Amino acid sequence: MAETMERRSFSLFRRRRDPEAEPDREEERIGWPFKVGAWIAFVVLLLPVVIVVLAGLNSGDHLTFPPEGLSLRWIFAFFESSAFLDAYVFSLWLAVVTMVISTVIGTMAAILLTRVAFPGRNLLRAYFLSPLILPGIVLGLALYVFYISSGWGLARTMPGLIIGHVLVTCPYVIGTVSAALFNFDVTLEEAARSLGAGPWKAFRKVTLPNIGPGVAAGAIFAFIVSFGQFDVSLFLSTPNYTPLPIALYISLRYTFEPTAAAAGIFAIALVVISVLITSRLINIRRFAGIKFS
Predict the structure, then answer these.
(1) What secondary structure letter does DSSP report for 153?
(2) Partner residues linked to 58 by β-bridges
(3) Fewer CB within 10 Å of terminal CB in the chain, N or C?
(4) Model confidence over 41-84: pLDDT tens digits?
(5) For residue 60, with 0-12 CB atoms within 10 Å meaning exposed, 13-18 middle and 19 or more buried, which class applies?
(6) Which domains does the chain have, with CATH numbers?
């Protein structure tokens, strides 16, 4: 009897210490109409991806759906196409560079917006996050006109293209890092400072490991958005280097070969891998209910 009571007490203690061990009552209360709607939305979002994959595996000579048959013919054609392969590699390089710059700038901006209280902080936060609200075509055109009118020589150059991608991707880093900082216990950093650690050492040894998942998630989001960025690249891409979305656009304007769909398969695979890595690095429930104020 005493052993049974001890086990029950230990189970109750474990549930209190580990919230994830408790059943999710919120999910149990979700009605079936919402679940059906969620599945319908999932199918609608996934259907274009399935169409692109099947079109890329088409055995016919033209980009058609449903496919005439399944073949790896156009997958091999993608590796033999210098236009698509070079565009894929360039988009990969551009996304990595953008990811690094956006992660550094976005993390510093998030620290400023969450740690420092000053007049106009909410206005500054809205300014940083405004690229999420503006349509991409408007932002790309505005940057192109600004580059031309300013006379700085950034139009159709590599620095100008990178700046455009950083402006688009930085809000994602700011959002995820801000959420991580709101969940971070500042007293841990204060304890490190009281023990003699400097500001940079306390941040590197205490704060950064705790907000690391948020920083990593923001970096991966920036990579995905930059890799598939079409609107900004349409106005700012250089003549000698073409990102993959622009190469696909040009190809579909003049030809209907399934090589473009095959290139889309590799782009989709890269995004899926990035999303899987993100799901491993970050727990979305940790950031639920965050108020950025």
Answers:
(1) S
(2) 70
(3) N
(4) 988 888 988 888 888 888 877 777 778 888 888 888 888 888 89
(5) middle
(6) 78-287 (1.10.3720.10)
On whether the CB atoms of residues 19 and 26 are closer than 8 A, the answer is no
Which pair of structure tokens corresponds to residue 162? 């990178």
Coil, strand, or helix at residue 70? Answer: strand
- pLDDT tens-digit series, residues 235-282: 999 888 899 999 988 888 877 778 888 888 888 888 888 888 777 766
The proportion of the chain whose per-residue pLDDT surpasses 90, expressed as a percent, equals 28
Are residues 184 and 116 in contact, defined by beta-carbon separation less than 8 angstroms? Answer: no
* CA separation for the pair 33, 38 (Å, rounded): 9
Q: How many residues does the chain have?
A: 293
Q: Which amino acid is at 260?
A: A
Return the structure tokens found at 120.
């106009």
Average pLDDT, integer, range 141-160: 92
CA 179 remoteness from chain centre:
15
